[in-house]
What we know:
The protein is an alpha+beta fold. The chain has one domain (about 5-140): SH3 type barrels, CATH 2.30.30.240. The protein is built from five helices and eight strands, in the order βββββββαβαααα. Strands 1, 2, 3, 4, 5, 6, 7 and 8 form an eight-stranded mixed sheet that branches. Strand 6 and strand 7 (about 70) form a beta hairpin. The two termini are about 20 Å apart.
Amino acid sequence: MGEIRTIEGRCEGFEVREEQGKKLGRTSGTFVDTSDGEEYLSVEVGFLGRESVLIPARLVRVNEVEKSAEVKELESRVKEAPGFRDDGEVAPGLIIRTRNHFGLGGAESEKYRDSAAHIEQVQREEGTGRAPKSSEDVDE
């Protein structure tokens, strides 16, 4: 897993709609995983924008002129994505869970998911101090 970097000034404040036209929220930034170049839009979806989700850029059609983005997923699928508090930091574990949620896991994702390093990463992110009982517990 590579470093997760912010792409400054890209797609910030764009209105985001799902494929049937329902408003989902606004973008707050763009991130890139340096290991594979995959980009993700951070979308504020929670009450008053207090929670965000990452959406893989390959699932989004961006209109720079209208400052809008359309996600090729339904509202429920986006809102069920792993959420995070948008403080400018994205942990590798969130990228893995996001890829798996949208069916974009890949070999690197699966290898990392089952490793001890992944379990430790999830513990640090969630601050639980306990190991998940199984890999299914990691996503919950």
